[in-house]
Structure formats: C-alpha cells, structure tokens
C-alpha cells in the first residue's frame, strides 16, 4: 500500500477544488476524533486512513466520479460529499447499508450528493483500498474504482 500516494492525490484534489472554488474550506479530524471513531465503530483504523483524515482537509468536499457510460440524457458522473466523523459513525451504526458494510470490513466515506441514499464505502482491511457504492435496498456492492488514490486522481471537480 502506498499510503503517501493516497494522501498526496487527496491533497491534489483539494488543491483543484480550491482553484475552482477559492472560498472552499475543507476539514480534517483530530487524534481524539480518530479515537472516538475507533471506539464507536469498534475497529482499529489503518495508518493510511488516519493519515488521510488528520492531514488532508477532505471533509465536506464534493466531487464526481465517472460511474456510468454517458448517454444523451446523462453524463454518467456521480457526485459525492466526503463525510466527517459524525457522518461515519451515524452511517455505520444507525443505518443500512452501513451496519452490514462495517461487519464486512467497509467503512463509509461519502454520501451521494444526488440524494440516491446509496453511500460510498472503502474496504479497510484490503491493501487495495477499493471504493464501492453499496445500495441500500439490497446491499449489493458496485465497485467505483480500484483504490482511493485513483478516486482522488480522477475526481471530477
């Protein structure tokens, strides 16, 4: 796992967002926020995850991913809003698919900004950091990208 690749691509994404939206201010989390997250989710978070959330102001960023093939009525881009600690805890302990996803080693990272109710998750116990949309109606998973670094690198601002 190239931990620094994830954080460096995330920083580049935040820089691209700030270039387009100069007033944008994202948020990071504190070490105590990480401790709260680990306690509430009853898991040990990987170092790359802690580094990402404590050093890159990603929280509240909104960006897109090319999820579907474009057609004449839809560009195929899905937009997401990166969640903070309270969002992660709420999605993972109070709602499906988050409760089931957490049991399977996935943790919530972003909500769909189109309001589909089908949130975005990352596989924590995988070296690949694959990113998935998990559908709330039947808990099926659709892989969006191979890893977080490519999500950030190819994000549409």
Protein model, in words:
- The longest helix has 18 residues, at 3-20.
- A six-stranded antiparallel sheet has the order 1-2-3-4-5-6.
- With 157 residues, it is of the alpha+beta class.
- The chain has a single domain (3-153), classed as SMI1/KNR4-like (3-Layer(aba) Sandwich), CATH 3.40.1580.
- The model has no long low-confidence stretch (mean pLDDT 92).
- A hairpin with a 7-residue loop joins strand 3 and strand 4 (120-123).
- The protein has helices at 3-20, 31-41, 47-55, 85-93, 98-103, 148-153; strands at 62-66, 77-82, 106-112, 120-123, 131-134, 141-145.
- The protein contains six helices and six strands.
- The chain is 38% helix and 20% strand.
- InterPro entries: Knr4/Smi1-like_dom (IPR018958), Knr4/Smi1-like_sf (IPR037883).
- Residues 28-154 form the Knr4/Smi1-like domain.
Briefly summarize what is shown.
The protein has 157 residues and is α+β, with helices and mostly antiparallel strands.
Which terms summarize this structure?
globular; 157 residues; SMI1/KNR4-like; alpha+beta; 6 strands; 6-stranded antiparallel sheet
């Amino acid at each position: 796992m190239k931990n620094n690749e994830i954080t460096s691509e995330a920083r580049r994404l935040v820089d691209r967002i700030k270039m387009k939206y100069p007033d944008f201010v994202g948020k990071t989390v504190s070490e105590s926020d990480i401790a709260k997250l680990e306690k509430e989710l009853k898991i040990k978070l990987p170092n790359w995850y802690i580094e990402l959330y404590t050093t890159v102001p990603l929280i509240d960023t909104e960006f897109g991913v090319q999820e579907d093939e474009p057609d004449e009525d839809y560009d195929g881009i899905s937009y997401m809003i990166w969640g903070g600690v309270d969002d992660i805890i709420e999605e993972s302990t109070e709602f499906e698919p988050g409760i089931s996803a957490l049991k399977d080693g996935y943790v919530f990272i972003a909500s769909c900004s189109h309001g589909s109710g089908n949130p975005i998750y990352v596989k924590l116990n995988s070296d690949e950091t694959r990113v998935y949309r998990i559908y709330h109606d039947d808990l099926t998973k659709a892989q969006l990208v191979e890893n977080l670094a490519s999500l950030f690198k190819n994000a549409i601002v």
